[in-house]
Amino acid sequence: MLLRFGVPLSGLVVVATACSFGSEGTFIGPRALDTCDLEIPICNTTAGCKLVEEDRYIEGQFPGQRSMIVPTAGEATIRVEIFWRSQLGPGADTEIIWHEPACVDAFRFESQGANVFDDSNAQGIFIKDRKVFREGEHLVEIRSDATGEFLLRTSVLTNSEIEAEKTAGLF
Questions:
Q1: Which domain holds residue 17?
Q2: Do 22 and 35 sit in the same domain of this protein?
Q3: Are 71 and 137 in contact (CB under 8 A)?
Q4: Which helix (H) or strand (E) holds 17?
Q5: CA–CA distance, 84 with 127 (Å, rounded to integer)
């Protein structure tokens, strides 16, 4: 057995590997990284990817914008979660727009100068939910002048899942 500083080398490998399973690894879970760099036509614009529930996540940097498609089977809540890998400056304008299929209606979150880093939970995750009403592919657009690196995932929640979270005191 090889030793380094009195610790078996295999132990060092285990310790190094364990570090990658921190809060970032927990946030990602079983999802695969999507480069989200396609040009999928939707609503007279394009989206970079389709994020199917608990299947994929994206990473990126703000300031900037990202757009993605999130399909639903009907009335549901689309949750957008942003894990801040780094927080350099909160900016003054972060906006998330959830569109109904064919962009017949849109729902908007605007930070209105609020610090989006301070609006994140104890794990450093910024979470915004929006109920949508129609089955189909929903364009979700995110723009921010905050400065930082992020990981982003989406979830589609049924009314009963939202109620269960409220009952459990999660939201």
A1: 1-30
A2: no
A3: yes
A4: helix 9-19
A5: 11
